[in-house]
Design brief:
The protein is an alpha/beta fold. The protein has a single domain, classed as P-loop containing nucleotide triphosphate hydrolases (Rossmann fold). Helices cover about 25% and strands about 30% of the residues. A 7-stranded mixed β-sheet has the order 1-7-6-2-5-4-3. A hairpin with a 2-residue loop joins strand 6 and strand 7. Helix 1 packs across helix 2. It starts with a strand and ends with a helix.
Length: about 160
């Protein structure tokens, strides 16, 4: 597992980081987004979708569990599993079947950790209590492909 940290000082920076990451992903990739409410996961998703020119279509999947965005470059499945009772409910909706069909962004993915593919990228968001708009993004790569992607991200932002 490889770790990498980035600091974002604004929602625009968070969106730029996400857009850059999106440029390295394709169908079959999974990204887990963790962090407390209001820490930037949705802004990250908005930036991610902007790479695919889908930024105007974002809506929270909170009540649907998964929001689907289909475009020619990739299928994107944005999950919010916060309201699931347990991992069995994820299996019941066929959640694991999405992993190979497109790029999966999973908010609160730590709640379904046992259902995740063996290889994925986890991004943990943490607010800076002394700076309202500052976030620390902790990237954890599970698998060689995601370690390579993190190397690219590191090069772009350092």
């Amino acid at each position: 597992m490889k770790l990498f940290y980035l600091t974002s000082n604004s929602s625009d920076e968070t969106m730029k980081i996400a857009k850059t990451l999106a440029s390295y992903l394709s169908n079959g990739d999974t990204v887990v987004l963790t962090g407390e409410l209001g820490c930037g996961k949705t802004k990250f998703t908005e930036g991610f979708l902007s790479y695919f020119n889908l930024q105007d279509e974002i809506s929270s999947p909170t009540f649907n569990i998964v929001q689907e965005y289909l475009c020619t470059a990739a299928n994107i499945y944005h999950f919010d599993v916060y309201r699931l009772a347990d991992v069995d409910e994820f299996y019941a909706i066929g959640g694991e079947e999405y992993f190979e069909k497109g790029i999966c962004l999973i908010e609160w993915g730590e709640l379904i950790e046992e259902a995740l593919p063996l290889e994925y990228l986890k991004i943990s968001f943490q607010k800076d209590p002394s700076k309202e708009n500052t976030r620390t993004l902790k990237f954890e790569a599970f698998g060689n492909n995601y370690e390579t992607i993190l190397n690219h991200i590191k090069e772009e932002f350092h």
